[in-house]
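Notes from the 1:1 (GR / supervisor)

We went over the backlog. Supervisor wanted to see one worked example end to end before approving the batch request, so GR pasted a single chain during the call. The sequence is below; no edits were made to it. Supervisor asked that the structure be written out right there so they could see what the output format looks like.
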Amino acid sequence: MNQMSSYHNLAKGTKSSVDKNTGASQSSTPKNEILIVDDDDLSRKLISRLVSKEFDYEIATKANGIEALEYAREHIPCLIILDLMLPGMNGFEILKKVREDQIFDQTKVVLVSAKSRSEDIERGFDLTADEYITKPFQPKEFAARIRKLLTKAA
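Structure output shown during the call:
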């Protein structure tokens, strides 16, 4: 099965995204939650499906950078999976704001983007991304990289 058809097959089976707006307390301890931020519906569903299949974490999704940052500040996820090209605020800007805010000291950030130029990857790591994964990616490799980060966080 080629890469794109496996993407489509995984994304098709995704349940509707959960968007929790319960107003969690502003504790600096990350919740057992993963925030997935991508403006592309198919990518968001694919990543959500992969994560929910592999890991026992609550999952929230956002398609807009500003909404994602607001949500993250309220809920403090343990992991943010972040696309770079987003409306409202791009992934680099979000990463920079997350790293400036002490409430996210224990939050891991994974950049996932079609931008595969070495300058973009270097910039992501300079802004202290924990991981940079280029699209399209292999689902098993993606899961292994996320597992490594979640295991280090635990």
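Supervisor's comment: DSSP finds six helices and five strands in the chain.
Batch request approved.
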